[in-house]
Amino acid sequence: MAEHHEELAHLFLEGEEDEALSYIDELLNSYSRFYVFEQVITQSMYYIGDLWEKNKISVADEHLATAVCDFVLSKLKADTSGVPARKQRKHKAILFGVEKEQHYLGMKMVAETFQDYGWRVRYLGPNLTLEHSLAQIKKYKPDVIGLSAALSYRLPTVKGLIQQFEKLEWRPLIMVGGRMASKFDLEEFESDRVMVIKGLPHLHQWFKEGREGVINETS
């Protein structure tokens, strides 16, 4: 019997929007939202990415799966829009995918996580250049800048962005995430200003430990 994430990946690849949403709703009756996001939806897209890298599916298949997953995430967000949010905090975050990076679904789930913890979030989407991201960042002055990338050859771009963002006078925390962060050792990037996030459990742990309070100490 296929694991949950493989079953969901199959529905995504078949373009079965309603069936995928029903499957997730069924899982939510037995599992936490956190489990479904991290262990089912995220892992299903990683699984699809692996299939694409092995030439077992086409680019069109991968795009269809991404579109269906996006639909499901949007519906899940809409279904919880009436749920009272946690007390709004003063902290702000900007999240985006680096230039030429087309993957964005994981970042959408990260944005929802920040919002769940009461943060104000600006999600700028994928494939954002340094020029445009820096303009938004200087205008919004976030406490956290979140960068996402999936493939190893984005590493030079990520490194260049970190170097630029470390120069910002209000000293925001820079978070680096995405599939790349879970597959490769990015310890060289980490410092008191840069944190590598290796998945939603890691981010949740950061919030539960109250680590956002450190931002005020270093800003």
UniProtKB/TrEMBL annotation:
Residues 90-219 form the B12-binding domain. GO terms for cellular component: cytosol. It holds the Pfam family B12-binding_2. One of its GO terms (molecular function) is metal ion binding. Keywords: Cobalt, Metal-binding. The keyword Metal-binding applies. Signal peptide: none annotated. It comes from the Bacteria. InterPro entries: Cbl-bd_cap, Cobalamin-bd, Cobalamin-bd_sf, Met_Synthase/Corrinoid, Meth_synthase_dom. GO terms for biological process: homocysteine metabolic process; tetrahydrofolate metabolic process. This is Cobalamin B12-binding domain-containing protein. It comes from Halobacillus locisalis.
